[in-house]
Each structure stands twice: as C-alpha cells, then as structure tokens.
Write a structure and sequence with these properties.
The chain is α/β, with parallel strands linked by helices. The protein contains 18 helices and twelve strands. The protein has a seven-stranded mixed sheet with strand order 9-8-7-6-10-11-12, sandwiched between helices. β10 (313-316), α13 and β11 form a beta-alpha-beta unit. α9 (204-221) packs across α17 and α17 (391-415) crosses α18. It is globular, with a radius of gyration of 21 Å. The mean pLDDT is 97. The structure holds NADPH dihydro-nicotinamide-adenine-dinucleotide phosphate.
Length: 444
Amino acid sequence: MSYVQRVLEELKAKNPGETEFHQAATEILLTLEPVINAHPEYEKAALLERFTEPERVILFRVPWVDDSGKVRVNKGYRVQFNSAIGPYKGGLRFHPSVNLSVIKFLGLEQILKNSLTSLPIGGGKGGSDFDPKGKSDREIMAFCQSFMTELYRHVGADTDVPAGDIGVGAREVGYLFGQYKRICNEHVGVLTGRGLSYGGSLIRKEATGYGLVYMTAEAMKMRGDNFEGKTVLVSGSGNVAIYACEKAQQLGAKVVAMYDSNGYIYDPNGIQIEVIKQLKEVERVRIKEYATRVPGSTYTEGCKGIWTIPCDVALPCATQNEIDEESAKYLVKNGVKYVAEGANMPSTLEAIEVFQKSSAVFLPAKAANAGGVATSALEMAQSSGRLFWSAEEVDAKLKTIMINIYHNMDNAAKKYGYEGNYVMGANIAGFEKVADAMMAHGIV
Ligand code: NDP
C-alpha cells in the first residue's frame, strides 16, 4: 500500500462517520501522489498525517434566548487546521447541516486555497448548526454575541481571522465584530468582510463571485474564447452566486437560471440581477418571488432540475455536493464547455470524474473561489497598514491574483505530466508551499 493510501485508510478509521471530511481528503491526497513520490522525506516526517490532522479543534456551547423567551442551545465550532504559512483564515458557516465533518472538510480545503492565493494565510474554518433563516434581527444578534463570547479567546488579528460563509454575511460579521471589540477593547482586523465604515475593504462582498468569473475568463482566453453570448447557469442566490452572475453578465454572458434551497428560477431573457439583490439582500425572501415579479420567467420547486438546462458555462455557487454524477452527465450531454466551482466541493467525486472525462474545462473550488479569501487578505493588509484602497485598486489586485492562480495550477499540472487536470494542478500548487513550510518548522 502506498504512503498516501495508508494515510487515507488511517484517516477514515480515526475519524469515523465524517463523510465530507473523507471525501475532501480523498480528492486531495490521491492527487498529491506525484509530489509525495518525489519527496520520500515527507513520509519520514509523517507530513501527510500532520497535514490531515487539525492543529486545534474548538467545540463549544452557544446558548441564546429567542423572541418568545425560550432558551436555545447550538453547537459552535472553530477548526484551526494549519498555520504553517500564516494565521488561520477561513469563514464561519451558520447552517443546520454544520457538523464537525463539514467544518473539517472546509478547513482542509482552505489550507490549499489560501496557499494558492500566494498570500501569507493559513487554513481554518468554523461555524454553527444555528439556522439564521426566519430569525429576527434581535435573535441573530443574540446568537452572534453568544458565539463570540466564547470564540474571542481563540482568535486574533495575528492568530486566527474568521470571515463569512453560508449564513454569515455583513449583518452577522457586524454583530460578531461588535461583541469582540466590546470584550477585548481593541479595534483590530480580527474578522474580514467587515462593513466599510469599520475597517472593511471595498470589493470584498463581490470578490468570490467576481474572482470566479475572472478565472473562468482567463481559462477561456487561453482557448481563444470569452464570455460574450455564453449561456450560463448559476446555482444559489447568495453572496457568491449574486456577484458571479453580475460579473458574467458584465462580460456579455446571459445567466438564465439561479436557485435557493427550495427551487430554481429560469429566465430565458437573462436574470435581472437587481431583482435578485432586492429579494435576497434587502427583503430576504424566497427566490420564487422572482417569477411573480419578472414576466417571462418561471419557478420550479426543487433544485436538481437546474442542471438539465442546456448551457455553455455552469457556475455552482450554493453548497457541497450539489452536482452529482447524474447532473454532471446532463451538463456534459447538453454541451457544457466550462464548469467553475464557486461553492466549496459542489461536485461529488463521481461528478468530477464525469467532467474530467469530457471535453469541458473543470476549474475546482479551491482555485476558482479563492478570490474571496484573497480579498480578505487584502482587507487584513489594509487594516494593519491603516490604509483604504479604492474599488479599482482592489478589483485590479483580485483580477491579477485570479489570473496568477490559474497559471500556477496550469503549470503545476503540466510539470507533473497532467496537463489540463486542474484538480491536480490546484492541489499540487497549493500543497508544495505548505509542505515546504511544514518541513522547515520541524516536527510541530
Ligand atoms: P450564502 O449563505 O450567501 O448563500 C448560499 C446560497 O446557497 C443560498 O442561495 C442558499 O439558499 C443556497 N443553499 C445553501 N444550502 C443549500 C442546499 N443544501 N441546497 C440548495 N441550495 C442551498 O453563502 P455564500 O454565497 O457565501 O456561500 C456559497 C458557497 O460558496 C459555499 O459553499 C461557501 O463555502 C462558498 N464560498 C463562499 C465564499 C464567500 O466569500 N462568501 C468564499 C469561498 C467559498 P437558501 O437561502 O435557501 O438557504
């Protein structure tokens, strides 16, 4: 049995039932074989065993009181996975599906993603099984304050810098930051995705979606192609989805469908993104409202059907495992040319295999959605330098970073003889730097 296979077997035995974590570890470790084989010293240093074991896992109780006066209790998590190249960095997710396995899969992915940005940030992730849907502003605030009342002692501007993710947007980051500041009596860059009035960065909100489209545009450019006139599917209608849709349309594409967790809308004339913003960012209502407001559009209950709509470009931007093998086959049969992952691990391992056997270009999440965390690192730089860059400056840096990530993973894939396999390219390019730093630090 190879070193990689042995580590994977041990990881599954030591972490039973953590299916999402097993899935992410399998995808990553199997693609690292060529690098591992080229470095026998890694096995002696148990590098992979250390790489797949978080440096620290924090689990805590989050008690809060709802509007009816009832005491509620949720689980809180922060996984500080790897700090070899910089302070832990990664979002907080508030969603009922959150458990340790989900946070560990996200944290493991985050290590390589953050390394790919070429900025000095380690990997972490956190969150809660709290469901913000349907809660009042006061309830959200009560929950966030309780969450931070425990988390504050584990994070810090040079230690661990959380940000948003599913269910954690500007409002939640504001409440979390307010409580941190109150407890610690310091106004520092301990969270990113902050509001512009208290240390946030322009373009952070747009960064993941814009970055996804910038990278896809670069992949297109390398093939003499572009977004002009392309039909695009975007899943989700949250932060990543909205700004992916906006940028794709700015570049001349027509986005025809989006969804939330209840169902999808189809608009053959092209989604009116201002209507989506109004529904999702302002009114916080279900996406089916779109069909009542925009003539010519339709709403279908259930999400999966979106992938049966013919398209040139698919941008999954909602959640893990939203594209399974069957959906991937539909996309390929209908002639999809580019699949770029805005969400984390939106394609199952079987779906990835379908894409890789097809002629479609597949851009994996840890590279394609790295624009968010990259811009978070730019926010950290502005915080520590007491600087405020213009939207144009940040956007230009984001674009450069996404183009560089594309070429770094392209070159890494070529270097090991797997041209065009960006899953391998991204994992290898991200891993090399982390492995190098871990070896330099000794057995820690
Ligand atoms: P949001 O909470 O803003 O939006 C999530 C969207 O996905 C919502 O439309 C939500 O619908 C939908 N969704 C969530 N779960 C499901 C599900 N099980 N089935 C169908 N739809 C679902 O989150 P973000 O946009 O921030 O994050 C989306 C993805 O992008 C996540 O995988 C996240 O980890 C990843 N990501 C986010 C980054 C960021 O900067 N925000 C950075 C890098 C990656 P509903 O409202 O009905 O729940």
